Amino acid sequence: MKFFIDTANLEEIKEAHSLGILAGVTTNPSLVAKEGVDFHERLREITKLVSGSVSAEVIAEDAAGMIEEGKELAAIAPNITVKVPMTLEGLKAVRTFSDLNIKTNVTLIFSANQALLAARAGATYVSPFLGRLDDIGHDGLDLITTISELFYLHNIDTEIIAASIRHPQHVTESALRGAHIATIPFNVIKQLAKHPLTDQGIEKFLTDWKNTTTS
Length: 215
Ligand code: E4P
Prior knowledge:
By secondary structure, the chain is of the alpha/beta class. It has one domain: Aldolase class I (TIM Barrel), CATH 3.20.20.70. Helices cover 54% and strands 18% of the residues. It is built from eleven helices and eight strands. Bound molecules: erythose-4-phosphate. Erythose-4-phosphate (E4P) binds next to helix 7. It holds the Pfam family TAL_FSA. Pathway: Carbohydrate degradation; pentose phosphate pathway; D-glyceraldehyde 3-phosphate and beta-D-fructose 6-phosphate from D-ribose 5-phosphate and D-xylulose 5-phosphate (non-oxidative stage): step 2/3.
């Protein structure tokens, strides 16, 4: 499973990139709004830093509007992936983008049927939202298992991005259940690297080293 970062914050992207683990970036309108920057300019900056897929979401709600916006976004850089919401209009737009060889990430996926439809419309990626399903008492991870099995059974090559990740266990379980990618907020990426026994181990090594070298 590959790691994407789920943010529009440049410092977080730089920091995650410097770890050598970053395969891509996902943004959404809420994440961009939080930054208070020009959307296209920020995308230009991100695509210069990261060579992997950078998802940029359309705002229009009708297919024609999504297609127009998506074409503009795709023109920013070759690694832009147009993020399209999972609606009937979105499916029409995904089909058009697929025919134009523009990559798409179908977002706000909450059921297996939505994922199947998106894949058949030609989506490059589907993004099931784990955390938001958990929030309403469903099991987001079960959806990853189901989509993963369905795509395997039917030889579908659309990649599954585990999204709305809230904690490290979401990451491990998404990998076990067959997600190709997890898009992860920076605070959770940092948590993945931490273990109290690692910290204790470093402290002990350093103490022992100091005691030896000073005696
Ligand atoms: C993914 O592409 C979405 O931007 C994101 O994972 C949504 O996460 P949230 O539910 O924490 O807002």
